[in-house]
């Protein structure tokens, strides 16, 4: 079985480049289905989730070529609106296909989305929102059939600023009849990147990045030829911040959009990490002692991102003092805790709250990645631990990080991807 094997204790130093954002590229790839044309997407990372999305587009008849980090998408030959179940089940983001497919073809047949195991991940808000726009959606034993002769604009008030739901509405509304207003919209930077792409293919959108977005439905262009550069991945950048903070390193993170990372930078600075702007990038120097943080709550952007919760917790496991972290976005997003405890962390979880009592050292252990950010947190803990850490199931990490082991090794980490026995006792 594959694993990351990490010799702890290396002090990171050097320059590392941040790749394009998975959570921007995925909805933009889905949005490409809205129109006929040639679409060039620049800085698309080569990740498992992106490969699944490309497989889905290809299964629908769309042509996708990859040259390095650039994708060339030709959406003219779209042949079907039935998404293969074996692909839908691999990734939650496939729910983004609902809006574009119904908009382009009048129908979509999807199965319930899969994705990483971070608690209950319903799609009720997606379904209710599209129903308000005139889509009839029926569910037959796990298969969703959505139909709309014509999508119409609506005023949609979201109970929660759901990222995916906001994105699905944006895509469905672009070429719908009339105006759509989203109240309590998600404000994540990835929403703004999707809006930039939709504008490039002809949509008329105001307010992306704020709680209130207005989309003026316009006639669908007959053919487009656009190029779009995907924004940098703020969570990958934040993970590198944590790597330097935890190892007492001194690294320069290039390519990150600093304005997307204010809450993450603030949290690490409060815990004693020296972070400054340097050469257009982020200079991160880890300092000791790491200071505990009295209370960190994850919340929708611009609050502290849930996708950085596990990584910050690994950092605070080595703090002087006790920290409290509250996960308000997802239930079940503490699956990294038992694995960190195996490495000597002192953490107690009560429902959505984790109490982290800092310890002086973590010890290498054999641990298991359960989802992409939990897995990243275990890699970080391994970098700082004494001895050898084996992180099993690195494919979870590969969903969100392109060659993470190579990026970390390039700044001094002792990490390799190896084949190991599936159990401690050597069974293969
Ligand atoms: C997006 O997921 C991201 N994924 C997630 O990143 C990220 O954690 C999340 O936004 C929050 O920022 C992509 O962009 C591909 P939500 P999404 O809809 O859209 C509930 C990663 O690590 N909800 O904002 O699924 C939901 O259960 C991934 O890269 C409903 O109840 O997130 C959750 O509790 C993990 N009904 C909350 O809203 C719905 O119909 C936030 O979900 C939809 C969501």
UniProtKB/TrEMBL annotation:
<feature type="binding site">
    <location>
        <begin position="22"/>
        <end position="23"/>
    </location>
    <ligand>
        <name>phosphoenolpyruvate</name>
    </ligand>
</feature>
<dbReference type="InterPro" id="IPR005750">
    <property type="entry name" value="UDP_GlcNAc_COvinyl_MurA"/>
</dbReference>
<dbReference type="GO" id="GO:0008360">
    <property type="term" value="P:regulation of cell shape"/>
</dbReference>
<dbReference type="GO" id="GO:0005737">
    <property type="term" value="C:cytoplasm"/>
</dbReference>
<dbReference type="InterPro" id="IPR036968">
    <property type="entry name" value="Enolpyruvate_Tfrase_sf"/>
</dbReference>
<feature type="binding site">
    <location>
        <position position="329"/>
    </location>
    <ligand>
        <name>UDP-N-acetyl-alpha-D-glucosamine</name>
    </ligand>
</feature>
<comment type="similarity">
    <text>Belongs to the EPSP synthase family. MurA subfamily.</text>
</comment>
<protein>
    <recommendedName>
        <fullName>UDP-N-acetylglucosamine 1-carboxyvinyltransferase</fullName>
        <ecNumber>2.5.1.7</ecNumber>
    </recommendedName>
</protein>
<dbReference type="GO" id="GO:0071555">
    <property type="term" value="P:cell wall organization"/>
</dbReference>
<keyword id="KW-0133">Cell shape</keyword>
<dbReference type="InterPro" id="IPR001986">
    <property type="entry name" value="Enolpyruvate_Tfrase_dom"/>
</dbReference>
<dbReference type="GO" id="GO:0009252">
    <property type="term" value="P:peptidoglycan biosynthetic process"/>
</dbReference>
<keyword id="KW-0131">Cell cycle</keyword>
<feature type="active site" description="Proton donor">
    <location>
        <position position="116"/>
    </location>
</feature>
<keyword id="KW-0961">Cell wall biogenesis/degradation</keyword>
<feature type="modified residue" description="2-(S-cysteinyl)pyruvic acid O-phosphothioketal">
    <location>
        <position position="116"/>
    </location>
</feature>
<feature type="binding site">
    <location>
        <position position="92"/>
    </location>
    <ligand>
        <name>UDP-N-acetyl-alpha-D-glucosamine</name>
    </ligand>
</feature>
<feature type="binding site">
    <location>
        <position position="307"/>
    </location>
    <ligand>
        <name>UDP-N-acetyl-alpha-D-glucosamine</name>
    </ligand>
</feature>
<dbReference type="Pfam" id="PF00275">
    <property type="entry name" value="EPSP_synthase"/>
</dbReference>
<keyword id="KW-0963">Cytoplasm</keyword>
<keyword id="KW-0808">Transferase</keyword>
<dbReference type="InterPro" id="IPR013792">
    <property type="entry name" value="RNA3'P_cycl/enolpyr_Trfase_a/b"/>
</dbReference>
<keyword id="KW-0670">Pyruvate</keyword>
<keyword id="KW-0132">Cell division</keyword>
<comment type="function">
    <text>Cell wall formation. Adds enolpyruvyl to UDP-N-acetylglucosamine.</text>
</comment>
<dbReference type="InterPro" id="IPR050068">
    <property type="entry name" value="MurA_subfamily"/>
</dbReference>
<dbReference type="GO" id="GO:0019277">
    <property type="term" value="P:UDP-N-acetylgalactosamine biosynthetic process"/>
</dbReference>
<dbReference type="GO" id="GO:0051301">
    <property type="term" value="P:cell division"/>
</dbReference>
<comment type="pathway">
    <text>Cell wall biogenesis; peptidoglycan biosynthesis.</text>
</comment>
<dbReference type="GO" id="GO:0008760">
    <property type="term" value="F:UDP-N-acetylglucosamine 1-carboxyvinyltransferase activity"/>
</dbReference>
<feature type="domain" description="Enolpyruvate transferase">
    <location>
        <begin position="7"/>
        <end position="408"/>
    </location>
</feature>
<keyword id="KW-0573">Peptidoglycan synthesis</keyword>
């Amino acid at each position: 079985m594959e694993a990351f094997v990490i010799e702890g204790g290396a002090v990171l130093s050097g320059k590392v480049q941040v790749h394009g954002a998975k959570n921007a590229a995925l909805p933009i790839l889905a949005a490409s289905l809205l129109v006929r044309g040639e679409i060039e997407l620049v800085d698309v990372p080569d990740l498992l989730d992106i490969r699944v999305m490309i497989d889905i587009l290809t299964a629908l008849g769309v042509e996708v070529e990859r040259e390095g980090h650039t994708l060339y998408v030709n959406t003219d030959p779209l042949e079907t609106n039935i998404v293969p179940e074996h692909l839908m089940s691999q990734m939650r983001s496939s729910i983004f296909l609902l809006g574009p497919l119904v908009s382009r073809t009048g129908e979509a047949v999807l199965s319930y989305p899969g994705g990483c195991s971070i608690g209950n991940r319903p799609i009720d808000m997606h379904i209710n929102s599209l129903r308000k726009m005139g889509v009839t959606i029926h569910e037959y034993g796990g298969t969703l059939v959505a139909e709309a002769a014509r999508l119409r604009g609506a005023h949609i008030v979201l109970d929660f600023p759901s990222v995916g739901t906001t994105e699905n509405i944006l895509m469905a509304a672009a070429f719908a009849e009339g105006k759509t207003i989203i109240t309590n919209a998600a404000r994540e930077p990835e929403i703004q990147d999707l809006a930039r792409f939709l504008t490039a293919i002809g949509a008329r959108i105001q307010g992306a990045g704020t709680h209130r977005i207005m989309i003026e439905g316009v006639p669908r262009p007959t053919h487009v030829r656009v190029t779009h550069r995907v924004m940098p991945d703020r969570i990958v950048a934040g993970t590198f911040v944590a790597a330097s903070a935890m190892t007492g390193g001194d690294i320069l993170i290039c390519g990150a959009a600093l304005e997307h990372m204010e809450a993450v930078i603030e949290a690490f600075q409060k815990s004693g990490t020296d972070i400054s702007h340097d050469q257009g990038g982020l200079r991160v120097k880890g300092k000791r002692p790491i200071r505990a943080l009295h209370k960190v709550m994850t919340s929708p952007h611009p609050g502290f991102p849930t996708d950085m919760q596990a990584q910050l917790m690994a950092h605070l496991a080595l703090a002087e003092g006790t920290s409290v972290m509250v996960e308000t976005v997802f239930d079940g997003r503490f699956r990294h805790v038992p694995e960190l405890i195996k490495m000597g962390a002192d953490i107690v979880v009560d429902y959505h709250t984790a109490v982290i009592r800092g310890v002086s050292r973590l010890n290498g252990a054999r641990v298991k990645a359960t989802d992409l950010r939990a897995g990243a947190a275990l890699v970080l803990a391994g970098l700082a631990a004494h001895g050898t850490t084996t992180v099993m199931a690195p494919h979870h990490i590969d969903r969100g990080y392109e060659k993470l082991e190579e990026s970390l090794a390039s700044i001094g980490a002792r990490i390799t991807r190896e084949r190991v026995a599936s159990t401690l006792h050597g069974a293969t």
